[in-house]
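Reagents: none. Just compute today. AKT interacting protein.
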Amino acid sequence: MNPFWSMSTSSARKRPETEEKVLVGELKNSPPRTAPKKQLPSIPKNAVPLTKSASPALSAQSTNGTHASYGPFYLEYSLLAEFTLVVKQKLPGVYVQPSYQSALMWFGVIFIRHGLYQDGVFKFTVYIPDNYPDGDCPRLVFDLPIFHPLVDPVSGELDVKRAFAKWRRNHNHIWQILMYARRVFYKIDTTSPLNPEAAVLYEKDIQLFKSKVVDSVKLCSSRLFDPPKIEDPYAISFSPWNPAIHDEAREKMLNQKKKAEEQQSKNMQVSGLSWVKPGSVQPFSKEEKTLPT
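Predicted 3D structure written out:
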């Protein structure tokens, strides 16, 4: 039995004798029960959280409300639900993977396919508060600072609070942060920038801005094969193309895609009789064949 959900009989409150007599009288007048009454498990006093904090600063944050009562269980459920939503959204060019060490830390990468940042491959890390979803907005930090008005040129952190000034539980979700992180590379916003130089160049000298963006994309590409900044088995890493390893995987993916397209084509084919024969009003008709005489 899970120790977090087991109840100790010794921890039950002892009723006064008068209360016990009343209960006994009630039991005599009531029909016998075939099964014991279901009760919610008590909250363990010394429950150990199932997830480690991503940083000492996060573990120092206070917890309130429902999370304070069922902390580890509610947090694990919330993060699992969030990751399920991310998978269902199928955000184009965005991939994420929760950390092995802590569910409060997700590794990700964004592929930019067109626009000013075309061919950009930007790795990032999402840091989730330990009192999620009752706390502040999760943070998104790129592994390398990108030349962008909304990205801090030193830390590489994206200005997420611009879009999520106040994080509202059951309304805001992590997939929305990922979608926002992808969108900022296609729709440039220069108001209240974290990188004033990038904002000024975008407004006053677009050619120089494009030149610096190209340099930033090339820098990220040149560092793509570097080891992950955080040592974790689930951290996203890239390796150069190796035909002995990758050709087989590529063929499998292409075959799966081909089979899916063929199945979709079969499902779209309509078999059976036509609804109305051309030149006729007779339904469910088919062409008449002339028998040889």
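The chain is about 35% helix and 10% strand.
Action item: order primers for follow-up constructs.
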